[in-house]
Model the fold of this input.
Amino acid sequence: MSITKAFERLEPAEIGWASTELADEVFNRRWFMKEGTIPPDPFGGTIDQVRMNPPAASPDLVKPSGPVDTEAVALSIRSVAGQPLAVLTN
Done:
């Protein structure tokens, strides 16, 4: 039913995008932690090597798990008349 409704509402559209650097607004949220400091996963496993959003300034932090992507991207789709249809940002 949803697919049928979406098909019935199809219309011509325009797409646009932009990107910018936001180095002051982003940071690495995944960190390598000292061995034995990552709690078990929901299934009881303990094979994780990094933790998402660990406590700030924790003495258990070792290093960030990777580089930080400082690019922010926006994708906009609007009708030919200029009405917004969708926006996606990352």
